[in-house]
Amino acid sequence: MTDVADPKLEEANVGRVGSTETVAQRVSYLRAGHSLKSWLLTTDHKRIGVLYTLSITFFFFIGAAAAALIRLDLLTPAGDLMTNEGYNRAFTVHGVVMVWFFLIPSIPNTFGNFLIPLMIGAKDLAFPKLNLLSWYIYMLAGLFTVFVLIAGGVDTGWTFYTPLSTMYANGNVILAASAVFIVGFSSILTGLNFIVTVHTLRCPGMTWGRLPLFVWSIYATSLILVLATPVLAITLVLISLERLFGLGIFNPAIGGDPLLFQHLFWFYSHPAVYIMVLPALGVVSELVAAGAHKPIFGYQFVAGSSIAIAALGFFVWGHHMFVSGQSLYASAAFSFLSIAVAIPSGVKVYNWTATLFKGHISLDPPFLFAMTFIGLFVFGGLTGLMLAMLAIDVHVHDTYFVIAHFHYIMVGGTISAFFGALHYWWPKIVGRMYSLAWGRVTAIFFFIGFNLTFFPQFLLGYLGMPRRYHVYPPEFQVLNVISTGGAAVLGVAYVMPLIYLIYSMRYGKPAPNDPWNATGLEWTTPSPPPKHNFGALPVVDRPPYDYEIEMRDEHV
Predict the structure, then answer these.
(1) Cβ-contact 293, 359 below 8 angstroms
(2) What percent of the chain has pLDDT over 90?
(3) Count of alpha carbons within 13 angstroms of residue 49, beta-carbon side
(4) What is the pLDDT confidence band of residue 201, given thresholds at 50, 70 and 90?
(5) Cα separation, 391 vs 323, whole angstroms
């Protein structure tokens, strides 16, 4: 075990990796400087990952506060808490902050930043200064959004649909669109950095066939970020120009086409769903292998399915427009392609299940969160298949059924994987262990709270309750009350990790290099890692997830 409070032990630990560095260079990244300046001007990918974690957590709780207001308002059929206008602004705040400032950057920008160089045996990302610039751009856009909220907010929903956003909305549409436009640059720069890093900085022996599955998933995500985000940026510029100058791009009265906006918006925003889910799939692959202490079944297929999901994600945007007026033939084609995404997704779930079969399973918090993810992902995926079918989509379009579906995939999937990653790599990040018992309790609270919140919304949607309404018939109240009660349980699950993880930073037991007996280069470094990650350049001579080698060693 590595006592991070004792520099001598820390030095000895680094020495086992084979270091020729000086003692000063072996100091952990957390001890490499304590001033605020040392953090704000850092180019260390691990520190930037921590900065992202703090920032994203801040914006998450802003979005969660707006969600709490929405659920409280829906406790009564008359919507007694907020006015119509206030409700519109609340769900817009919730959507804008959660999608653009939490769900999309959550896992790539935090764990991707912290882990990719460690996992591929590099000292840092390819462009460290660009990495820091990405964080500053993210913060600029986030603070811009907070200013928009203080200045009165927006009432268009996070989708900025035209002609509402260009002709009728009363809020600060241009300012909000500008914030999303700015944060898009952060995503593009981060994606470029990851792609170049994976191509150029892999250590000797780290072939493409030996890359950890988390790295594969971040690589696939980065391709989407770089290729799709510029389309969103152009769309937001067009909204601003239309609103400012009335150019007629989306206004049919002067030759525009409001449907054009939906094509442009969903060309980015449906792949954005995979920007949120693909990193989560990568996290779960790591957690399943470590939880079962077995190599991932069908490694090549799991890695290839990430690329397949990224590629197919560009061809499914039209399923958001089945009732918008596109041709029947186009809808049929988009229906077929949307259903096809289930194939690579199913490959992952099948291979995880095969990995768990006869595994040496440890019911630690990361594994419980991985199981939560699989349950929510499968259920959300099955309901996604229903929405990909024309007849069913027409029945439940723009109802709470859709809300429940995308929350199961985007929110339940991303947050359960984010929590799984946080509990798995936390000892590596801070060098301290946390209470495993409280971690298990949190995983159970999260699973119960999430299903209580969103499963009733499937029923509400099927029965006909439309989304974005805060006044509804009294027969829907029971299900709305159950949903709000579940949200309260979910809120407890969100707050609990804040308490015991922060507590562990001061009072937790020192973490060993590899507390889960996992494989991967990141577990060969001290906890927390030194500034430049490795004492000497590592050389990989084993396949990924080589638990079978360890199991054979145990039987010798």
Answers:
(1) yes
(2) 79
(3) 24
(4) very high
(5) 10
Task: Find the mean pLDDT for residues 411-431.
Answer: 96
Judge whether residue 6 has pLDDT over 70.
no
CA–CA separation, 122 and 201 (whole Å): 6
Binning the chain into helix, strand and coil, the percentages to the nearest 5 are: 75, 0, 25
- 298: alpha, beta or left, given left = phi > 0 and alpha = psi -120 to 50? left
| 473: preceding bond cis by omega (within 30 degrees) | no
* Residue-wise pLDDT tens digits, 503-527: 999 999 999 999 999 999 999 999 9
* pLDDT tens figures, 120-177: 999 999 999 999 999 999 999 999 898 988 888 898 999 999 999 998 888 889 999 9
SS3 per-residue string spanning 215-226: HHHHHHHHHHHH
Q: Is the dihedral of CA 181, 187, 189, 191 positive or negative?
A: negative
Nearest to 260 by CA among 334, 166, 180: 166
Nearest to 436 by CA among 377, 545, 511: 511
Distance between CA atoms of 550 and 99, rounded to whole angstroms?
41
DSSP 433-473: ---HHHHHHHHHHHHHHHHHHHHHHHHHHHHTPBTT-S---
Per-residue pLDDT at 32: 86
CA distance 518 to 86: 49
Contact 460, 388 (CB under 8 A): no
3 state DSSP class of 510: strand
* Residue type for position 331: S
Q: How far is CA 223 from the centre of its chain?
A: 16
**pLDDT tier for residue 270 given thresholds of 50, 70 and 90:** confident
Hey, what amino acid is at 445? F
Q: Which residues neighbour 508 within 8 Å (Cβ) at sequence distance 6 or greater? A: 430, 432, 433, 434
Q: Do 340 and 312 form a contact (C-beta atoms < 8 A)?
A: yes
SS3 205: coil
Q: Would the pLDDT of 75 be above 50?
A: yes
193's enclosing H/E stretch is: helix 173-200
- As a whole number of angstroms, the distance between CA 223 and CA 298 comes to 23
When pLDDT is averaged across residues 383-407 and rounded to a whole number, the result is: 94
The total number of residues written for the chain in this structure: 556
Rounded Cα–Cα distance for residues 273 and 288 (Å): 22
Instruction: Write down the pLDDT at residue 492.
Output: 96
Q: 118 with 199: CB under 8 angstroms?
A: no
| Secondary structure of 87-114 in HEC code, one letter for each residue | HHHHHHHHHHHHHHHHHCCHHHHHHHHH
DSSP structural state of residue 29: G
Give the DSSP H/E element, type plus range, for residue 282: helix 258-292
Please answer whether residues 63 and 93 qualify as being in contact, where contact means their C-beta atoms are separated by less than 8 angstroms. yes
